[in-house]
Amino acid sequence: MRKSLEEILGPHKVSLNLMKAVMENLCQGHYNESQMASILTAIRFKGITIDELMTANDVFLKNKKNGFSKEGCTGIYSTGGGFFKAFNVSTIATIIASASGVNMVKHIARGYNYSMSSLDLLEALGISFAHDPHLCVEKLGLCFYKNSEFSHLHAFRKSLGVPTIMDLLFAVLGAFDAEHSIIGVSNLDDFYLLAQAFQRIGDRHILLVRGEDGMDEITLTKKTRMIEIKGRDSKEFYLCPEDFGCTRCIFSDLEIKDIPSTINLFHEILEGKKCPATDLVLMNAAALLYLAGTASDFHQGKILAEQTLYSGKAKQKFNDVLNFSS
Question: What CATH number is given to the structural domain containing 285?
Answer without folding.
Answer: 3.40.1030.10
